[in-house]
Amino acid sequence: MSRRSFLEDYLSAFDRIEGWCSPDAVLMFMAYAQAAASVGIDGDVLEIGVHHGLSAIAVAAIRKAGSKFAAIDLFDDLQAQNRSGSGSGSRSRFERNMAEFFGDTGFVRCITASSDTVLPDELGDQFSFCHVDGGHSAAETRADLDLCTRVLMPGGLLALDDYFNPAHPGVCEGAIQFWLANEAPLRPIASGFNKVLFQKQPATSCLDDVFERLFGGIPHKTVRLWETPIRWFNALSPFFDIAVSTPRRLVRSSAFRMNAELTPRATDVRAVRGSGIIHIPVQVVNRSSIPFESGDGSAPFGLSYHLMSSNGLEMQFDNRRSYFDPPIGPGEERVVEMAVEVPADEGDYQVEVDIVWEGMAWLKNRGLHTPRIRLKVS
């Protein structure tokens, strides 16, 4: 029997190591750290707020060989200083979990302190990656961003936890205060999975271009944060082969598929002008390697269509959605009532059936065969 990879062992431990991180979040850390390392941004790593080490294991694993990992936490002894009640770390559990995955942990520098008492000179300035998951008040967040910015090398990465978490508004407040008070030392580049990734400026390489070169084709949505376009990811796990990947070298999965079979139950449909919405049954077979998630998620899948003239000229690409509820798993099929808005003018039209991954992609643009339905409006 072949031995499991480090990543397989690590990701399987998420159900037994207490923490608030997700496999997709650490894959985002690793992918961008790999992109940074490929252009020479590669050094020490740091985490503020390690708790029991769930995300710290990932952060430590992306460091350059021979470099150090600094772990800052109040741990058991200083919980009286935990002003925002942000977890209660156990140093013994943290050290035990680190030893389980790394054996010799001589590279770990464990600092039991409030992070706002740690001076940059105590840490050095050769850090390429920092993960901030400590105090969640505005003042604590602002101080942590200031510390990490001072110890990061130019182009280094900073991951901030809970920026968009409504239960911890102080994180967003403190981050914005930091942004407004400084001459743009951090540029946001990516977000997802309750994390925002920033790059320290000035940076000689655009990691967006490097990421695309290494991992091009991973679906994402371009959004704006701090007046800057960034990538927002809804999923990363399906796109990497964990069995052959390492924390410093992720390998794209050859098993990932994004496809479906769409079969309208009617190919000639009549409607009355001004009748509003009609429903056309379409059989949907999921031929992808991931489920078509339902409409209650942040990036749901849905059946939609493109309205065309009778001779096939596009009239309106973006139209009403019929979200899948419940989700349609790989290999599953279902007849979905596709909602179609009847055009206001009489005439002959074509309805091209498609699937939208909201904010990510239309499957037609990824090679999906999209059948057409003739629609006569009278």
Can you offer a commentary on this structure?
The mean pLDDT is 93. This protein folds into two domains: 6-239, Vaccinia Virus protein VP39 (Rossmann fold, 3-Layer(aba) Sandwich), CATH 3.40.50; 260-377, Immunoglobulin-like (Sandwich), CATH 2.60.40. The chain has helices at residues 6-12, 23-38, 54-61, 91-102, 120-123, 138-151, 169-181, 207-215; strands at 44-48, 69-73, 108-112, 127-132, 152-161, 186-192, 195-200, 221-225, 228-232, 260-264, 268-271, 277-286, 301-309, 314-316, 322-323, 333-341, 347-357, 361-362, 372-377. A hairpin with a 4-residue loop joins strand 13 (301-309) and strand 14. The strands form three sheets. It has a nine-stranded mixed β-sheet with strand order 3-2-1-4-5-7-6-9-8, with helices on both faces. It has 378 residues and is α/β, with parallel strands linked by helices. The chain is elongated.
Radius of gyration: 24 Å
CATH topology of the largest domain: Rossmann fold
- Percent of residues in helices comes to 10-25%
* Major pleated sheet: 9 strands, mixed
Shape call: elongated
The second-level CATH architecture of the largest domain is: 3-Layer(aba) Sandwich
Kindly state the mean pLDDT as a whole number? 93
**Classification by helices and strands:** alpha/beta
CATH C-level category of the largest domain: Alpha Beta
User: What is the CA–CA distance across the termini?
Assistant: 67 Å
Strand coverage percent? 25-35%
Relevant CATH superfamily of the largest domain: Vaccinia Virus protein VP39
Query: Unreliable segments (pLDDT under 50, ≥5 consecutive)?
Result: none
How many β-strands, per DSSP?
Answer: 19
N-to-C SSE string, H for helix and E for strand: HHEHEHEHEHEHEEHEEEEEEEEEEEE
With strands numbered from the N-terminus, the spatial order across the biggest sheet is 3-2-1-4-5-7-6-9-8
Number of domains: 2
